[in-house]
Design a protein that fits this description.
Four copies of one chain form a homotetramer. Chain A is mostly helical and 170 residues long. Chain A is built from eight helices and no strands. In chain A, helix 1 packs across helix 4 and helix 5 runs antiparallel to helix 8. The longest helix of chain A is centred in the N-terminal third of the chain and has 21 residues. The first copy, chain A, is elongated. At the A-B interface, helix 7 and helix 8 of A face helix 8 and helix 9 of B. Chain A binds a DNA duplex (21 and 21 nucleotides) through helix 1 and helix 3.
DNA sequence: AATGAATGAGGATTCATTCAT
DNA sequence: GATGAATGAATCCTCATTCAT
């Protein structure tokens, strides 16, 4: 891929992330192109379909979260990860209403990272032994989406997560 | 309002609930009309805007939940309510996808009912005293939306709720 | 169907026939709408797809030819029919480049009429007994399309048909 | 012209012939480039316009037919030529679909060759004396296009050509 | 009140063509 | 000369909404 193409791909993803975060997945591809400073055709050259563009955003978003997770660990790495994810989600609703994109499937990317955090938390005794990855993921997804749709403030977020953390601690 | 108009209003809401549950909020108003067995103009006479139709569905859905809640109580009325809500949500994605409709605002309807269930649970000792309604609502919304987007099976739903119930119990 | 809808359907077909005759099947549906004096949505309400519009034109065109054929007969009804068809085709290229529309299938409409003309011509001795409908249709189609693409003048058309008629006469 | 340029020109024409034969003249130039194994820019360097590319194909196709004709002669050289042309046409719809390219003009290339075949056939007595080149060309074009659009099988093709040959024989 | 045809802005996608690399 | 990314006009089609019947 040529360097200008590489640069444009990045710009488009950035623009798309912002646009879809603001306006939801129903926002027009034209607006993405406008914000990215490219012509509409360029967007479609990089992502032949709107759905593929949405999927690409989701993938990048999750990749970042996974990378983020990799830097955590210890007794409350999992808790930190939950907090950051919720904050992220509230900022970028993208994660949520990605119509037509298989969110659960894409979520697979996070399984390993979250699994590792869970293990460490269990080793440190912060999380009960019989808690398993699937419900942790389920709680993570739930709480992220709840935050997006609920418009939580910082305090509510804390109190909500506190309940979940208590539940995980048993 | 004439009786046939009354009847049509009901039919339209029923149809809308089903259509939007199946196809998401992006489904066309025409399809709603078709399923309701009325002409498109009739839909717009009753609900001048698609958003108003969506809001009406949401309102009715929440009213039902509130009514449902009113029939519960005791030590685990709150738990039962959570379980039913999640099951509902998974069946009818409607609650979730309602882009453009202020879900949190509409949610106000449930505050009282949930507040009451919470109080009873606390009186029975099933839920910690320092848990307050806002985070209960937040958890409820989260877990409903999580269920919708995650495609949980019965077991995952149980395990996920179990964590939350443990957290509420402290 | 309401009377205005009926009227519009007719207008659209007329407009489409003219537009596609002039510009070929690649002409835009917008232009059809413009000429018909309706909005683009109306065209698509009547013919949900451009292909269906093209098919409808073709069908109507062939229906007219069949009707025309029904009024002919005798020793050289078939010859007259060939001549008229070729003249038609030259005027309206439509018959020809209807991409995406199964011309041969639609042509079925003419089979009966042409079969009847052929029988009469054979009874009158103008056409050999061993000539069968399929090749008559094949010749008809060929010569129509040839006329369209070749831009024949009246004399060339006569001389070309004369060869075919001689061939049919054996 | 550099030798690689020469080679590319040939590859592009081959690819174009195949692509347009398969998909019709509406096929994209990109696909031609892909099949030719060159970049899209190269196609446009050689043929500044899609129409020029189509015209070039047509020209080459006709040149080949003319060359083919040159190898024929005698009593039924003309008949053989008709048969081969029709077979060709059915295989490669190209000849037909070339919208926007003046087929009749390009056809001029064949006039001499066909004229010669006609003369020989007339000398041999296989074709009537008063038949002239224009109608022979007209019949040839007609029958080629008929074959393409009609999807004739071998037998129908034989029977159809038989009528024409009989007509030419008078 | 209901009907359903008409409207037309909006949006995804394609593709010939240009031009920087 | 070749490459292939970018352009952007053009096109098909959808759908919320209006309005004549």
């Amino acid at each position: 891929m040529r360097s200008d193409a590489q640069r444009n791909r990045g710009r488009i993803l950035d623009a798309a992330e912002e646009v879809f975060a603001r306006r939801g997945a129903a926002a027009s591809t034209e607006e993405v192109a406008r914000l990215a400073g490219v012509a509409i055709g360029t967007v479609f050259r990089h992502f032949p379909t709107k759905d593929e563009l949405l999927a690409a955003i989701l993938k990048r978003l999750l990749a970042r979260l996974a990378e983020d997770a990799a830097g955590l660990g210890g007794a409350d790495g999992l808790h930190t990860f939950f907090r950051r994810s919720v904050a992220q989600a509230a900022a970028k609703r993208t994660v949520v209403d990605l119509v037509g994109v298989s969110v659960p499937a894409a979520l697979g990317q996070l399984d390993d990272a979250v699994g590792e955090l869970l293990r460490q938390a269990q080793d440190a005794g912060t999380v009960r032994r019989d808690v398993r990855p699937p419900e942790v993921m389920a709680l993570l997804v739930s709480v992220c989406q709840g935050a997006v749709h609920g418009g939580w403030d910082a305090e509510l977020q804390d109190r909500t997560l506190a309940v979940i953390f208590a539940g995980l601690a048993g």
